[in-house]
Amino acid sequence: MSGSLVVVGLGPGAEAQMTPQALAAVEAADELFGYGPYLARAPERDGQIRHASDNREELDRATLALQRAVAGARVAVVSGGDAGVFAMAAAVCEAMEKGPENFRAVDFSVVPGVTAMLAVAARVGAPLGHDFCAISLSDNLKPWPLLEKRLKAAAEAGFVIALYNPISKARPWQLGAAFELLRTVLPVSVPVIFGRAAGRADERITFATLGEADAGIADMATCVIIGSAETRTIARPGLEPLVYSPRSAR
Amino acid sequence: MSGSLVVVGLGPGAEAQMTPQALAAVEAADELFGYGPYLARAPERDGQIRHASDNREELDRATLALQRAVAGARVAVVSGGDAGVFAMAAAVCEAMEKGPENFRAVDFSVVPGVTAMLAVAARVGAPLGHDFCAISLSDNLKPWPLLEKRLKAAAEAGFVIALYNPISKARPWQLGAAFELLRTVLPVSVPVIFGRAAGRADERITFATLGEADAGIADMATCVIIGSAETRTIARPGLEPLVYSPRSAR
């Protein structure tokens, strides 16, 4: 029997934002691997084995999943959002490259999903309406000076910036430092959106400007979108404001 | 009767990659607006009016859609991929800002979708596995020197680059010029992926290196992903290569 491994993006959280392809991939699996809260989103199936893990052991989890596929299991590795954006697909590819030759012979595929920044952007208008970038603010796997370089380059070149993994217990100061740095490049009036758990029951969307943005608003489940100098806020009487980045620029 | 307007991202093309939320939003509409090929993807419903348009008249289409919502219709404006990434959500926001006051009182929402770069990335591994940016290469709405500045800044700072709208009959030379510029900044060994119509029947995925990348491979329906200096290609005997960008960097 020949196994397989699929890395599945479950979307931002709401069931209606998970694609039929993702649902089918999860349902077809013999064994599911993933961070506990993501596994909890996949519908239960009799006889299916679930390997829940901490969200920091990504390479170990990827290796174990590949070993199970080599042994003949149909394996699904689940990620929140999209599988390829700061998620498990890169970790599995890394394990395939570093591991034994039979890892590279595994029937391997990736199912994309709606990544967090798209769900947050949809909730507030179209802040990603022109050129933008996505940066993981975690300096566990890359040095902080490289993050500073990327933030500065992106802001100076007029990209809207979406920040993933903005803050955690072990990384309490990085988001505040990022705001400080961006205030030296961008107008303080630039819109900032803190999008927590977009589309889920515990959703919380907070609007701010770069000048007043408080890193304490964010938690691990927050995606922070920082506009460019072109990004605009539309006031609407009795309604939430809209934030959008115009398609045209000078 | 109070109307509404929803901008819907239909995903990259395959039906299994459209979210249930997008399908429901399209089915609930009285009137659909959009570029003809996108409208063709939405299931037909009796009594539903369809306004197909050229893909260049975005602001006019947005204004007409808002007028219909003000008149009481439940309107859906459809986009391929995600609604907020180089698509109709920003055009509708712009029309709301520039238009009469009653445009800003419309019940307005956006339904996100799987945008093209995520679908292309999933097909080849995890090229967007670390910090990345998305750039529309169209200089219809922004000057070419600004695009050069963004391409250079992104490559120098180590972002993977996803290019939307890489080429058209009216813009035949820009993608070649972008490759030329990037060759002055990045190693010629950097992987380049031409992802055309990912997930559709007429899909075509082409692997190249930056040194040999030929702009002629791309067409309007292609998303081009250009790796960073860290992006790696894994050869697999008898299988397509995998391309991924490692989570860690120095």
Automatic annotation (TrEMBL), chains A, B:
Residue span, Tetrapyrrole methylase domain: 5-213
Classification via InterPro entries: 4pyrrol_Mease, 4pyrrol_Methylase_sf, 4pyrrole_Mease_sub1, 4pyrrole_Mease_sub2, Cbl_synth_CobJ/CibH_dom, Precorrin_MeTrfase
Transmembrane regions listed in the UniProt entry: none
Keyword S-adenosyl-L-methionine belongs to the record: yes
Keyword set, alphabetical order: Cobalamin biosynthesis, Methyltransferase, S-adenosyl-L-methionine, Transferase
Keyword NAD among UniProt keywords: no
Any one GO BP annotation for this protein: cobalamin biosynthetic process
GO molecular function, one term: methyltransferase activity
Pathway(s) of this molecule: Cofactor biosynthesis; adenosylcobalamin biosynthesis
Top-level taxon of the source organism: Bacteria
PANTHER family: COBALT-FACTOR III C(17)-METHYLTRANSFERASE-RELATED
Name by which UniProt lists this protein: Precorrin-3B C(17)-methyltransferase
Origin species: Azorhizobium oxalatiphilum
Lineage: Bacteria, Pseudomonadati, Pseudomonadota, Alphaproteobacteria, Hyphomicrobiales
Gene: cobJ
